[in-house]
TrEMBL record:
<feature type="transmembrane region" description="Helical">
    <location>
        <begin position="295"/>
        <end position="314"/>
    </location>
</feature>
<dbReference type="InterPro" id="IPR005829">
    <property type="entry name" value="Sugar_transporter_CS"/>
</dbReference>
<keyword id="KW-0769">Symport</keyword>
<feature type="transmembrane region" description="Helical">
    <location>
        <begin position="177"/>
        <end position="196"/>
    </location>
</feature>
<dbReference type="InterPro" id="IPR005828">
    <property type="entry name" value="MFS_sugar_transport-like"/>
</dbReference>
<protein>
    <recommendedName>
        <fullName>Putative proline/betaine transporter</fullName>
    </recommendedName>
</protein>
<keyword id="KW-1003">Cell membrane</keyword>
<feature type="transmembrane region" description="Helical">
    <location>
        <begin position="231"/>
        <end position="253"/>
    </location>
</feature>
<feature type="transmembrane region" description="Helical">
    <location>
        <begin position="144"/>
        <end position="165"/>
    </location>
</feature>
<keyword id="KW-0472">Membrane</keyword>
<dbReference type="GO" id="GO:0015293">
    <property type="term" value="F:symporter activity"/>
</dbReference>
<keyword id="KW-0812">Transmembrane</keyword>
<keyword id="KW-0813">Transport</keyword>
<feature type="transmembrane region" description="Helical">
    <location>
        <begin position="104"/>
        <end position="132"/>
    </location>
</feature>
<keyword id="KW-1133">Transmembrane helix</keyword>
<dbReference type="InterPro" id="IPR020846">
    <property type="entry name" value="MFS_dom"/>
</dbReference>
<dbReference type="GO" id="GO:0005886">
    <property type="term" value="C:plasma membrane"/>
</dbReference>
Length: 429
């Protein structure tokens, strides 16, 4: 695979998750800048609510950009996604504060988060499809692993950058201008990504689809009519993957910081994410050798088994015990995340691949998985038990893991140019 294809594909995905990490890390500061209130908790909750707006708009973005990818090409959809993400993130960096323009400040922030959500709705699966359609059949898992690894690396980069800023400038400077610096990085990242993506050729699979006059004029409608069962399978895959990933990327650090140091919690979480990044290529290669089904089902059931002991380690008060717990959790999560990157692409036929994968992933990883850290925190606060969030995660992983063991077809090795339906011809019921 040409190196320019890999670089152009990964840079947009990196930008998306870098923004995710930065917004979460400066949420307290953004609450003071855009939602001033006498109660700091109210400001923080308002800031986090705006953070969640993007997840509400992801399914719509998945439908729009997925359809663009099927009708006009994967390259066009990827270029539109990186443009939307980078422009919105850069504009957030230069937004006036509430003290400057009043009500318009939070309103504009909400609108820009909506644009980010729309753009991100087609980024992950669009990038996965682009890499997969270029990769040799026996290396698709390894190539898709780069998508998952780049997302984890971007979260580490964003988190560490914010921590460095907080240790360099005082709180007043951080609230005045310091928080803007990480968001400004979206401009060069986005411009580079757009330039590289516009210079790419279409994937071989899409070129063949065009040559055979197989491009669908209404891919989303075709998906909803003929791929409903596949959509449900893909939705389940995305949901269990996303819930686990947001626990690893967000909730574990929050649980660890209760009664402890936020800085220590974020550093431990970032170190565990680096372990996850290293594990992703191994998971991809394993799936190329033994298949997607055993890796996916085994990783989901491992989440169910590990949820309680991992949460106990994370909440033990020991940074080393928390790190051990997160690393244990990172092993099956790497398997789930990499499988989500490739299986959602392999499940759908070529003419509806972008639409089907983007809609299913956005619904599962957006409203379902995106609310997992909030639900987990609410369960912990409401019950007073750290085990409640663990049981929530274990229940989701167990139910979906058993369901996937019954209905998930083996997709490794199938031709991505084939217009048959793997969920129907696999022999599973």
């Amino acid at each position: 695979m040409p190196r320019r294809v890999v670089t152009a594909t990964l840079i947009g995905n990196f930008t998306e998750w870098f923004d995710f990490a930065v917004y979460g890390a400066v949420a307290v500061t953004l609450g003071r800048v855009f939602f001033p209130a006498t109660d700091s908790v109210v400001s923080l909750l308002a800031s986090l609510a705006v953070f969640g707006v993007a997840y509400v708009f992801r399914p719509l973005g998945g439908a729009l950009l997925g359809s663009v990818g099927d009708r006009y090409g994967r390259r066009v959809a990827l270029s539109a996604a990186v443009l939307g993400i980078s422009v919105a993130t850069t504009l957030i960096a230069v937004l006036p504060s509430y003290a400057t323009i009043g009500f318009w400040a939070p309103l504009l922030l909400v609108l820009l988060r909506c644009v980010q959500g729309l753009s991100a709705g087609g980024e992950w699966t669009g990038a996965s499809a682009f890499l997969a359609e270029y990769a040799p059949p026996d290396r698709r898992g390894a190539r898709a692993a780069l998508i998952s690894a780049s997302g984890g690396l971007a979260i580490v980069a964003g988190t560490v950058l914010v921590l460095l800023l907080e240790s360099t400038v005082d709180p007043a400077q951080m609230q005045s201008w310091g928080w803007r610096l990480p968001f400004l990085l979206a401009a060069p990242l986005g411009l580079t990504g757009l330039y590289l993506r516009l210079r790419l050729e279409e994937t071989p699979v899409y070129q063949q689809l065009q040559a055979e006059d197989g491009v669908s004029s209404s891919p989303l409608r075709d998906t909803l009519r003929s791929e409903r069962r596949t959509l449900l399978i893909a939705f389940a895959c995305a949901a269990v993957t996303g819930v686990g990933f947001y626990y690893l990327a967000t909730y574990f650090a929050n649980a660890m910081s209760v009664g402890g140091s936020r800085r220590t919690a974020l550093l431990v979480s970032s170190a565990a994410l680096l372990v996850y990044v290293v594990l992703c290529p191994l998971a991809g290669r394993l799936s190329d050798r033994i298949g997607r089904r055993p890796v996916y089902v085994g990783a989901a059931l491992a989440h169910a088994v590990l949820a309680v002991p991992v949460l106990l380690l994370v909440g033990s008060g020991s940074p080393w015990a928390a790190f051990l717990g997160m690393c244990l959790f990172a092993v099956p999560q790497a398997g789930l995340n990499v499988m989500s990157s490739i299986v959602l692409v392999e499940l759908f036929p070529a003419r509806t691949r972008s639409s089907g994968a983007a809609v299913a992933f956005s619904l599962g990883a957006g409203p379902i998985a995106g609310t997992a850290p909030l639900v987990a925190a609410a369960l912990a606060a409401g019950t007073g038990s750290p085990l409640a969030p663990a049981l929530y995660l274990a229940s989701i992983a167990l139910v979906i893991g058993l369901a996937l063991a019954k209905v998930l077809p083996e997709t490794a090795g199938r031709s991505l140019a084939d217009d048959t339906h793997p969920a129907r011809v696999s022999g599973t019921t």
